[in-house]
């Protein structure tokens, strides 16, 4: 038995690394589990892929970057089928290419149940603060309310740096 908590691109990895297994019908993707009597029906958090242009670059660089983004968005089905990553567009998510990929319905439903995780310049620092908050409650006797208050303050400071 193999278990992996990952993205739709793993199917493409299986297809290229082990085509015999990919075509065997001996693998599957199941929805993210939900505890009995769960307070909310949430799937795993995920990182959203998005395309941006650095406004601090010269206008020529920005123009070329926007042209590249336009190209990527016009070829999102090809990008999905060759690279296995989803461009964040309704058109792609409703396309025959997306719907034709094995278990894409499972990934789409889990994305609808999940939420996007912030990932940016200070993400590592924020993750460090989250770990510190959890450890302060578990190991140092800090109340969850106090740990959350401190975490919010430190996260805001990291975002403002």
C-alpha Rg (nearest Å): 20 Å
Strand element count: 0
Average pLDDT works out at 88
Helix content: 55-70%
Number of domains as seen in the coordinates: 2
Distance between the termini: 45 Å
The secondary structure category is mainly alpha
Parts with pLDDT < 50 across at least 5 consecutive residues: none
Separate helix tally = 9
Most strands sheet: none
Strand content: under 5%
SSE order in H/E notation?
HHHHHHHHH
Shape: flat
Quick description:
It is built from 9 helices and no strands. The protein has 161 residues and is an all-alpha fold. The N and C termini lie far apart (45 Å).
List the helices and strands and how they pair.
Elements: H1 9-17, H2 19-22, H3 59-74, H4 76-83, H5 90-93, H6 96-100, H7 104-113, H8 123-140, H9 144-160
Helix pairs in contact: 8-9
Account of the 3D structure:
By secondary structure, the chain is mainly α. It folds into 2 domains: 1-32 and 43-117, no CATH class; 123-160. The protein has 9 helices and no strands. It has helices spanning 9-17, 19-22, 59-74, 76-83, 90-93, 96-100, 104-113, 123-140, 144-160. It is flat.
Which key phrases capture this entry?
57% helix, 2 domains, 9 helices
């Amino acid at each position: 038995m193999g278990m992996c908590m990952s993205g739709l691109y793993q199917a493409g990895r299986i297809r290229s690394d082990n085509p015999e297994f990919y075509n065997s019908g001996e693998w599957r993707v199941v929805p993210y589990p939900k505890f009995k009597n769960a307070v909310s029906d949430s799937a795993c958090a995920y990182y959203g892929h998005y395309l941006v242009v650095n406004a601090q670059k010269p206008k020529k660089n920005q123009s070329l970057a926007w042209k590249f983004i336009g190209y990527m968005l016009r070829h999102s089905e090809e990008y999905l089928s060759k690279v296995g990553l989803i461009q964040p567009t309704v058109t792609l998510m409703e396309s025959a290419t997306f719907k034709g990929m094995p278990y894409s319905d499972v990934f789409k439903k889990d994305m609808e149940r999940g939420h996007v995780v912030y990932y940016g310049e200070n993400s590592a620092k924020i993750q460090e603060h989250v770990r510190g908050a959890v450890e302060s409650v578990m190991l140092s006797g800090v109340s969850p309310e106090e740990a959350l208050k401190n975490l919010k303050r430190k996260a805001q400071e990291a975002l403002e740096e």
